[in-house]
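Q: Structure tokens for this one, please.
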Amino acid sequence: MQFSETWFYCPVAEGASSALLPDDEAHHARVLRLKPGATVVVTTGEGSVYRAALRDEKGALEVGERIIHEPEPPGLGVGLPLLKGRDTEQPGEAVCE
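A: Here is the predicted structure, written as tokens:
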């Protein structure tokens, strides 16, 4: 699932309908020139993710629905230099083991 909204960190109490962004996060919202009413995504840092609306330029939020957010597992890439002959098989076998 991909989100196009801006993400912020904010400690939101379970079941709360409003919250206040920490000072540094509120500063980021001002730098991004987000206006009151802008939709943002808020993470608590403990696994909960909420959709919220900015109420004012000081960082007050109206907390909306909780979003079920399943983080994607990190990808794995393997790079090998150009090798000749059987030399290409041994690293491949070693990676698979």
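A few notes: Residues 62 and 75 are 35 Å apart (CA to CA). Strands lie at 6-9, 18-20, 39-43, 49-54, 60-67.
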